[in-house]
Specification:
- With 110 residues, this protein is mostly helical.
- It has a single domain (2-79), classed as lambda repressor-like DNA-binding domains (434 Repressor (Amino-terminal Domain), Orthogonal Bundle).
- It has helices at 2-20, 25-32, 36-43, 51-60, 65-68, 81-91, 95-109.
C-alpha cells in the first residue's frame, strides 16, 4: 500500500514538472529516451521509473532527486526563466549537436 502512494506522488511530481515546462508526454518522453506509454504509467502512478530513467530525469531537468522523492516541497512556479530557456534550446538542437554537447559537459564534469 505504501508503495502505491509513493508511485502516485512521484508520478505527480514528474507530471507537474513536465506541465510546468510546457511539454507534452510525447515531447518529454523523447527527451528522456523512453516510450510515451512508460511515461504515462509513471505519471499515473502505475509503475516506478527504473534507475536509468530516474537518473535521466535528474540529469536532463533542473528537478532535484530530493524533490522527486518527496524530501523537498520545491515550488515549481519558481523555476527560473533561464533554466526554461536553456531547456528549450537544448531540446530543439539536432541530435548530433546534443551528443557533442553531452560529451563536452561530461568532460568538464570530470
Amino acid at each position: 500500500m505504501h508503495n502505491t502512494k509513493i508511485k502516485k506522488e512521484l508520478g505527480l511530481r514528474i507530471k507537474s514538472y513536465r506541465k510546468q515546462i510546457g511539454k507534452t508526454q510525447e515531447e518529454f518522453s523523447y527527451l528522456l529516451g523512453i516510450e510515451q506509454a512508460n511515461l504515462s504509467k509513471i505519471e499515473n502512478g502505475k509503475s516506478f521509473p527504473d534507475i536509468t530513467t530516474l537518473c535521466t530525469i535528474i540529469q536532463k531537468t533542473s528537478v532535484s532527486v530530493e524533490f522527486l522523492l518527496g524530501f523537498l516541497k520545491k515550488d515549481l512556479e519558481k523555476q527560473t526563466s533561464i533554466d526554461e530557456k536553456l531547456f528549450e534550446l537544448i531540446i530543439n538542437l539536432p541530435e548530433e549537436i546534443k551528443v557533442n554537447l553531452k560529451n563536452l559537459l561530461f568532460s568538464i564534469k570530470k
